[in-house]
Amino acid sequence: MNLISLYYFVELAKELHVTNTAQKLYISQQNLSQHIQRLEQYYGVTLFHRKPKLALTYAGEQLFYSATKILAEEHELLNRLSAVSSNNVGSLKVGIPAYRAQICFPEILPSFYEKWPNVRIEMIDESSTRMEEMLFEGELDLFIGIMYQDHPKLEVMTILNDYIYLVCSDEFLKRYYQDSYPELKHRAGQGVDLKWFSRVPFMLPKPSMRLRKTLDTCFQEAKVTPRVFLESSTTELLISLCPYNYGAFFCTQMRLPLLFEKNPNVNVFPLKRNGEVMRHRLVLAYHKERYLPEYAKDFIEITKGSFRDIVDMRTKRQSEDRRQSVVF
After folding, report:
1. Strand-pair category, 142-146 with 90-95
2. Structural domain harbouring 219
3. Contact status, residue 328 vs residue 318, Cβ threshold 8 Å
4. Is the pTM of this model over 0.70?
5. pLDDT of 13-25, one tens digit each?
6. What is the 3-state secondary structure (H, E, C) of 154-192?
7. Among 82, 107, 128, which residue terminates a domain?
8. Which partner for 42 in 1, 118, 125, 235 could form a disulfide, CB atoms 3.0-4.6 Å apart?
9. DSSP assignment of 277-310, as one string?
10. 10 Å Cβ neighbour count for 214?
11. CB 108 within 8 A of CB 299
12. Same domain, yes or no: 217 and 321
C-alpha cells in the first residue's frame, strides 16, 4: 500500500467512473485498476461494486473516510516540512468558485509568486457547502466563498459584503407593468421589495445553492410564490439568457462586470430584506487547528488587501457609463 494508490482510490471514489478518473489523473485505465486491485489485495476486501454500476462497498466507504484523513495529514506534513526547506517549496489548496478566481487571481497571484515562486496553488471549485466540508476535513488549506455562520474551529474573515441585485430589462418591465413601469423602476432603484415583482417569472439558482436558499427566504418573507421559468446551477447561463427576457433573475456584485459587458443597458436593482440592502457575505476561512505555512499567511494578507479594491474598481468602471446608477 502506498499514498499514490490511496490518492487514486479517493479520486475514483469521488468520480465513480473509471474512464473519467483515469483521464483526470493522466494515467491509463489499466494502471488505475491495478492500483485499486493492489489496495484490495493489501486489505483483503472488495472496495467497489462493479455492477450494475461502479459503487463503493461498505469496506470502500470505510477506506474512503480514512484515506481522506491520511492524505490530508500528509499534505499538512509537507507544508510543515516546507517551512524548514531552503527551497521554499510547497502547495496550497484553495477552495474558490472559478468565476471569483477569474476576477481576483490575476491581481493576487503576481504579488504572491514574486515572493513564493516554488509554491504550487491548486484551485478547487465545488459548491460552498462541499468546500466547507473539505476545509474541516483538511482537504483544503483556504476557502474563499459564501459563509453565513462562523464556526469555533475556523478562522473566518469577511472580505466582502457581496450585494444581491434583481436583474431585468426595460422591455421586460413594460411587458408586465405597461405604463406603470417607470414608477416601479424608480422605486426599485432604491431597493427591491419582492412583492412589487409578484407578476413576473423568474430564472433562479438551483435549490441546493446558497444564493437560492437566501432568495427563498426573501420570497417567503414577502409572501410571494415565485413563478419559476428556469433553474440553473450557474449565473453565467442566466446572464446569457438576459436578452431574451424569459424572466427576472438575481446577480451578486462580483458578477456585475460580466453582466454589464454582455448586457450594458440592463437594470439592476439592489435586493432588500427587512428594509436593509441584502448582503451575501464573502469570507476567507481556514482551520484554526491545522498548520498554516508562511506562504499561506502571505496569500491571506495579499487577498485581504486586494479583494475589495478589485471588485470596487471593476464594478465602478463598468457602471460609469450606464444611464442608471447602481446603489451599493
Report:
1. parallel
2. 88-328
3. no
4. no
5. 989 999 999 988 8
6. EEEEEEEEEEEEEEECHHHHHHHHHHHHHHHHHHHCCCE
7. 82
8. 1
9. E-EEEEEEEEETTS---HHHHHHHHHHHHHHHHH
10. 20
11. yes
12. yes
Domain final residue, candidates 27, 56, 82 = 82
Predicted pLDDT of residue 99: 82
Label residues 161-177 b or e (16+ Cβ within 10 Å = b): ebbbbbbbbeebbeebb
User: Could you report the per-residue pLDDT of 76-96, keeping only the tens digit for each?
Assistant: 777 667 665 556 678 899 999
Across 222-244, b (16+ Cβ under 10 Å) vs e yields bebebeeeeebeebeebbebbee
pLDDT at 323 over 60: no
* pLDDT at residue 116 is higher than 80: yes
All cell numbers assigned to 294:
508562511
Cβ-contact 193, 278 below 8 angstroms: no
Q: Cell 463598468 belongs to which residue?
A: 318
38 and 146 fall within a common domain: no
- Extract the C-alpha cell encoding 65: 473516510
Total domains in the fold of the chain = 2
> Which residue has 478518473 as its cell numbers?
21
